[in-house]
Amino acid sequence: MGDTGNSPDFVDGVRAEWARTYPQVDTSPIEVIGRITRIGSQALHQLDRALSPTGVTRVEFEILCALARADRPLRASEVTAVTMTSGASTTKHADRLAKVGLLERLPFERDGRVVLLHLTETGRALVDSELPRRVERDRRLLDGLDDRERETLAALLRRVSRNAEATTGP
């Protein structure tokens, strides 16, 4: 029989510690946000380890993935928007990716000051190789959930995600 979700985990321990230290504070949001954060950190750590042999960082891989999903070359500002990195970071990583032949810079016909980023065949091959592995690691994180549970979890997290995107203050 699979885990029913009742076994204590790391977040339960953290929440118990906070309850002892600050008993007057309702720490129930940690039940969800703490787990989202921890799962995200673990998934990103796994991705970092998996990408290490390729010589590409996680941020660089996200840039390559943004270009692979696009149906056209993208402006650096568009890549910045979808990867949630700074413009300076996008430029720095794009420069390195261009040097190693994973993307190329193309002139924008309507404005010579604008440069478009385009995935090279080598960059596409890297994404083609690594993306299925990433999806499989993510799939393993969801082991024990049936299709209905996964759909419910996705719908609930979508609502939380919208709240996060709508929040502008601290």
From TrEMBL:
Ranges where the HTH marR-type domain occurs: 26-162
Superkingdom of the organism of origin: Bacteria
Gene3D superfamilies: Winged helix-like DNA-binding domain superfamily/Winged helix DNA-binding domain
MF (Gene Ontology): DNA-binding transcription factor activity
InterPro entries recorded: HTH_MarR-typ, MarR/SlyA-like, WH-like_DNA-bd_sf, WH_DNA-bd_sf
One of the Pfam families matching this protein, by short name: MarR_2
GO biological process, one term: response to stress
PANTHER family xref list: TRANSCRIPTIONAL REGULATOR, MARR FAMILY, TRANSCRIPTIONAL REGULATORY PROTEIN
Name this protein carries in UniProt: MarR family transcriptional regulator
Organism for this UniProt entry: Rhodococcus spelaei
